[in-house]
Amino acid sequence: xxxxxxxxxxxxxxxxxxxxxxxxxxxxxxxxxxxxxxxxxxxxxxxxxxxxxxxxxxxxxxxxxxxxxxxxxxxxxxxxxxxxxxxxxxxxxxxxxxxxxxxxxxxxxxxxxxxxxxxxxxxxxxxxxxxxxxxxxxxxxxxxxxxxxxxxxxxxxxxxxxxxxxxxxxxxxxxxxxxxxxxxxxxxxxxxxxxxxxxxxxxxxxxxxxxxxxxxxxxxxxxxxxxxxxxxxxxxxxxxxxxxxxxxxxxxxxxx
Length: 256
Prior knowledge:
It is built from 14 helices and seven strands. By secondary structure, the protein is an alpha/beta fold.
């Protein structure tokens, strides 16, 4: 996703510095004009806005706070946007640590995944001061459809978690509905067209066949963990990890 985002930034003739722990992955962007850096600190030292596009909480902390991390190189007033899907309290913890260094750490959870990054149509759900989110919005024009300010730091992750719950729930429900229709003699393509204008319409159904089923277990694990801490029961969502584990991309393609 970082490579796709970087490609759009460079295509818009904007300066870009990049880092990846696997150096050869930076080569395509470097060939297009990006500055390949040896550490996250080196990226931060020459950037007004830093996007942290990694997998989980541990990687976010490592990228920001380890020796040679973003916090070591960023100058005062730098915007540091956490784009990974992580816990809201992780974002708040790192925002407080960043504020001690004069940095603006906000959460800007990416929605629409790798395909959205490739198409330059990502949506960012952001938590933090609105003026800081405005600065991020201006920097992200080349690869976003929308940058949405949801609330204080951590709120972007809450919105992303809610989005993920609905995404995976819709995909599983769509599969079962299409399988039922096929068993009763209605072809899935015909049924999808009919459902698209009905009260059961949903975005995953409209984009059927494009889903890659990446990260459902991680997304749902985060959702269920924060639900427990908030004292919210989620009986439907609690069944989704097992149900999503049973599905493959081939299962979706069989219902095209």
